[in-house]
Amino acid sequence: MTLFALGLNHTTAPLPVRERVVFHVEKLFDALGELTRGKSVAEAAILSTCNRTELYLSAEQPQAAAAWLAEYHRLNPSEISPYLYTLPQEQAVRHAFRVASGLDSMVLGEPQILGQLKDAVRSAQAAGTLGTVLHKLFQRTFAVAKEVRSTTQVGANSVSMAAAAVKLAARIFPDLKDQKVLFVGAGEMIELCATHFAAQAPARITVANRTLERGLALAHRFSGRAIELRSLAEHLQEYDIVVSCTASSLPILGKGLVERALRARKRRPMFMVDLAVPRDIEAEVGELDDVFLYTLDDLQGIVQGNLDARRSSLEQAEAIIETQVGQFMHWMSARASVPLIRQLREQGEAARRHELERALRLLHKGEDPKQVLEALSQGLTNKLLHGPTQALNEAAGEERRALAELLERLYRSK
Q: Where are the beta strands (DSSP E) in 77-117?
């Protein structure tokens, strides 16, 4: 089995492709079980976020996993193969370290991906698909991310999708204190966005969520109110800013619904941000004259500001990662030698037991202990050196020279 990372992200695939291969949390357990059901994949973890879907595998061949990914999402392999990357062994390790450290994110150094990766690992543990190799990889990954974030400035000058959304809204509206903000969903991303918008002291904050109790809990933190998602059509026209991020597999805000809200608003503009994958807001909504709609991909250009300090630390972070990659690959190499080491020890133990039993029989017969010990030591020496001596005698030419150098190194006296 070989370590692989397989997937696509915001640099290789546009949003319409990424949203077709999302793994929803409630289906992740079964997906991991299905992926590892065959013999070709021994260990697996799936990281699925707004910006990436990645499979971390201990497997024989990555092609089988790529085919499974397409089949699971009912896609033709040709629909996603141009966007997929396959990273074997050392490349996979380096990639995992960079992802966890925020170096492969749309926003350099953003911290959210580390928590998402930890969630992915917990899901793999729960599904029983995390074996020795991936467990070691992710434990080292989390340690590397901690070192990068604590010893460099890669995570400084916090910039996030939430901060970018606030910046965009400020371009549309002169003063956010006069605006009413609606958050659709109550997950981690919405909580982060609500925190950023609440700092601007908007006129009203409302959370619309499928579960009213959870919406109320989040709204209470920001002195806001909550409504049920099903009543969204009745209240949408009240809000100037709408930020949506749910786990819905279908759009929640369609073009017709938004058109009705705009008529009720007498064409006053609406600023809308869709942070969900798959999208919560139909793409056609962006065609409406009085709507400013932004998706995750649209925000990429906004988040490029305030990154100078992070970029200046990038070289230092990459150096840390390279050192840690080398150490992990050394562990992988040492692990590959374990079967041979075990075999050598078993052979040595068998020789020891044989000579010991022979010596005990001689002592039981009354033989001279000194002679018995001498025979024991000679027997052990002959058995342990028989293999190397025979190999050296049978070798010739360059093979003999290389073997002689190796034996000299192994048996060199200190």
A: 85-88
Q: Are strands 180-184 and 204-209 parallel, antiparallel or unpaired?
A: parallel
In degrees rounded to 5, what are phi and psi of residue 316? Answer: -65, -45
Give the CA distances from residue 201 to residues 157, 179, 190, in Å, rounded to whole numbers and listed in that order.
Answer: 22, 9, 16
Q: Which helix (H) or strand (E) holds 315?
A: helix 314-336
Question: Is this prediction's pTM over 0.70?
Answer: no
Strands (E), 253-412: 270-274, 291-295
According to DSSP, residue 253 is labeled B
Task: Give 357-402 as a DSSP string.
Answer: HHHHHHHHTT--HHHHHHHHHHHHHHHHHHHHHHHHHH--HHHHHH
Sheet containing 2-9: give its strands across: 41-48, 52-59, 2-9, 85-88
Please report the domains of the chain, with CATH numbers, ordered by start residue. Answer: 2-156 (3.30.460.30), 161-302 (3.40.50.720), 352-402 (no CATH)
Neighbours of 146 (CB within 10 A): 13
Peptide bond into 174 cis (omega under 30): no
What is the rounded CA–CA span in Å between residue 142 and residue 109? 14
Q: What share of the chain is helix, strand, coil (3-state, %, to 5)?
A: 60, 15, 25
The H or E element that residue 7 is part of is strand 2-9
Active-site residues, by number, are: 50
Distances (CA, A) of 401 to 342, 385, 387, 409, 410: 27, 18, 17, 12, 14
Question: Mind spelling out the 3-state secondary structure of 192-208?
Answer: HHHHHHHCCCCCEEEEE
Residues 84 and 53: beta-carbon distance below 8 Å: no
Q: Any idea how long the chain is?
A: 414
Note the pLDDT tens digit of each residue in 374-414.
989 998 888 888 888 888 888 888 888 888 888 888 887 55
CA distance 146 to 101: 8
Residues 63-102 pLDDT 10s: 899 999 999 999 999 999 999 999 999 999 999 999 999 9
**180-216: b (≥16 Cβ within 10 Å) or e:** ebbbbbbbebbbbbbebbeebebeebbbbbbebeebb
Confirm if 396 and 379 have CB atoms less than 8 A apart. Answer: no
| 3-state secondary structure labels for all residues of 151-190 | HCCCCCCCCCHHHHHHHHHHHHCCCHHHCEEEEECCCHHH
Q: How far apart are CA 281 and CA 273, in angstroms?
A: 9
